[in-house]
Structures are given as C-alpha cells and as structure tokens.
Design a protein that fits this description.
By secondary structure, the protein is an alpha/beta fold. Helix content is about 50%, strand content about 15%. The protein folds into two domains: about 1-90 and about 305-310, Four Helix Bundle (Hemerythrin (Met), subunit A) (Up-down Bundle), CATH 1.20.120.140; about 105-295, P-loop containing nucleotide triphosphate hydrolases (Rossmann fold, 3-Layer(aba) Sandwich), CATH 3.40.50.300. The structure holds guanosine-5'-triphosphate and magnesium ion. The site of magnesium ion (MG) has 6 residues, from helix 7.
C-alpha cells in the first residue's frame, strides 16, 4: 500500500510541483496575504479550473481570516481536504458482464495519442497478473502502425490478440474479438480503438457501430465504455469527453500521463462536469504504471502531503 501511494506521489510530482510544490517555502512558514495569491495562481496553472480553485481558496481564506497564525502546511491540509471532498466517490470500478460468465468488454476510446493502446496493454497486463484470462482486440484498423504496436504488446504480455488488416471494418474486428474471447472463456475483452478527433462526425459514428455490434453479441456489452484522456492536455479534456459521451455513452475515464505533467488538475474539472467515474490513472509508459484512482491519495499528493495527513 505504501509502495502504491509512493508511486502515485512520484507520478504526480509535476502536478504537485505545479501546485503547492512550487511553494514549498510556504510550507514551513506563516502565511502572508501575498501567499494566498500565489496558491491561487499555481492552482490555476495546474489546470484545476475555476470552480475548484474557488472552493479551495474560499476555505483557505476563511481559515486565514480567523487565524493569522496559519502556516503554509495548514493551508495545504485545508486545500487537500477540499479537493478530496470534491472528488469523493469519484473512484470507479470496471463493470462485469450481466451473467458474470461471458466476457466483460472494455472499449477504450479517445483522441489521437491519448494513451489508448498503452492503456489496453496495461489493463491486459494487470488482469493477466491476477490470473484473469484476457483477449485484446485491435480495433484500430485506421493507423498503419497500430496493428504492429499492439501485436508487440500482446506478444510481450503473452495475451491473445485478435486483429485484422489495415483498413478493415473496426466493428467486424470487435465482433471477431468478442467471439474469440467467448470461445476461450476469457473474463475480459479489451478493445483498443483508433484515435479520433471528437468533432469528426464520420469517425465518431464508427464508435456507435462498434457499440451496436457488441450489443448484438451480448445485450449488456460494451460493459465499459471508457475514455482515455491525456492528463497533460488540461481542461481541453472536458469538451472532448462531452463530445464522446454524446455518441458513445461513457461509463468511466482513465487519465494518462499524470507522471509527466504540471496540468494534473484537469481531472477534477472533468469529474465535476461529467461525473464520470475515474477508473485508473496512468503514471508512466510501462505495463505496471497503471494505478487505481484514489481520490484522497491524489488530493494529498497534489498538496505535497501524505494521505494520512488529511
Ligand atoms: N509518460 C507517460 N506516457 C504515456 C502514458 N500512457 C501512454 N503514454 C505514451 O503516450 C504515447 C501515446 O500512447 P498510445 O498508447 O500509443 O496512444 P493512443 O491513444 O493509442 O494513440 P493513437 O492510437 O495514435 O490514437 C506513447 O509514447 C506512450 O508510451 C502514461 O501514463 N505516462
Ligand atoms: Mg493507439
């Protein structure tokens, strides 16, 4: 558990550096009014968004008005608690198929380069490590190098892959992959899809077709329609997620690249506006760099604290 938290904290170093980490000098001293502005500014620059910054600042200012002896570390605790409160209940779980026996389908969607293929591999790695049989479906038939990328992952992880030629119908791959997963008695079917811009209607329609084909295989499929968001893109993610949700109703999100960004605050805004459960976060490029989201650990890490301190 400690290891997990440490990884989470390390992964979020840039966000916390962008947030209060940049103000570490503040931690050990009494606050002065200018510090309030610095905290506000750094929260904005980490892309926490207006509402969240407002809520955090209101709480800190209220306490500061009452207690001029307030220390930076106390302000951090207040901020982390407010953030944890905003994100309370945001952790989501993957859903299983209705009968619990047929494969449970996870379909990963998102804009180009958000981390879908890597996340498919990470999920397959985690399930396999738990002894849960998994089949990967290469529904990105659009990009030339896509098949090779996921094939390499499948080989490395020893996971069965169903794929087709470039240019093939992605819904047909989804259908074949489901059939294979069912025949093998797999618990999970993870479908990687092509990156697409959320405002390209024809590409978005392809997702509806995948969902339709899957629902013919199992009326409760896809059980998990998950948007993979690049955590470094900040608040742009909100519009993206909304557009995907309209065409392909989402059940959750995975936020990647939180290890390499100072913009790790955007997930709070996405959660606030869509109330989409946050299933996992990506904290690196390796298969093991996928973590279940823990709102309290995240809130603490952002403010440079341990979970037990808030
Ligand atoms: N640092 C870091 N890099 C990541 C993470 N997840 C993915 N990446 C990297 O981001 C890049 C894009 O990842 P892909 O998995 O290929 O993204 P994709 O969404 O499948 O891309 P398209 O199929 O082109 O839309 C790769 O270089 C990955 O290694 C993460 O959590 N942290
Ligand atoms: Mg991909």
């Amino acid at each position: 558990m400690f290891g997990l938290l440490k990884k989470f904290k390390d992964g979020l170093k840039k966000t916390s550096a962008g947030a209060l980490g940049a103000l570490t000098g503040l931690f050990s001293k009494k606050m002065d009014p200018a510090d309030l502005d610095s905290i506000e500014e750094t929260l904005y620059s980490a892309d926490f968004g207006f509402e969240t910054v407002r809520d955090v600042m209101e709480a800190i200012k209220k306490e500061y008005a009452r207690n001029r002896e307030l220390r930076g570390s106390d302000a951090a605790v207040i901020g982390a608690r407010v953030l944890a409160g905003i994100l309370e209940g945001s952790e989501g779980e993957l859903k299983a198929s209705a009968d619990g026996e047929s494969p449970s389908v996870i379909c990963l969607v998102g804009v180009n380069g958000s981390g879908k293929t890597t996340t498919s591999a990470k999920l397959a790695a985690a399930f396999s490590a738990d002894g849960q049989k998994t089949v990967l479906g290469a529904c990105d038939t659009f990009r030339a190098a896509a098949n090779e990328q996921i094939r390499q992952w499948a080989e490395r992880l020893g996971v069965e892959l169903v794929s087709s030629a470039q240019g093939a119908d992605s819904a047909a791959v989804a259908f074949d992959a489901y059939a294979a997963a069912k025949a093998r008695g797999a618990k999970w079917l993870v479908l990687d899809t092509a990156g697409r811009l959320h405002n390209k209607e024809n590409l978005m329609r392809e997702l509806s077709k995948i969902a339709k084909v899957l629902s013919k295989c199992d009326p409760s499929a896809p059980h998990n329609s998950v948007i993979v968001l690049d955590g470094s893109l900040g608040s742009n993610s909100i519009e993206q997620a909304k557009a995907f949700d309209k065409v392909f109703p989402l059940t959750g999100m995975i936020v990647t690249k939180l290890d390499g960004t100072g913009k790790g605050g955007a997930l709070a805004g996405v959660y606030r506006s869509l109330k989409l459960p946050i299933l996992y976060v990506g904290l690196g490029e390796k298969p093991e760099d996928l973590r279940k989201f823990n709102s309290k650990a995240y809130a603490a890490a952002v403010f440079g604290l341990e979970e037990s301190q808030i």
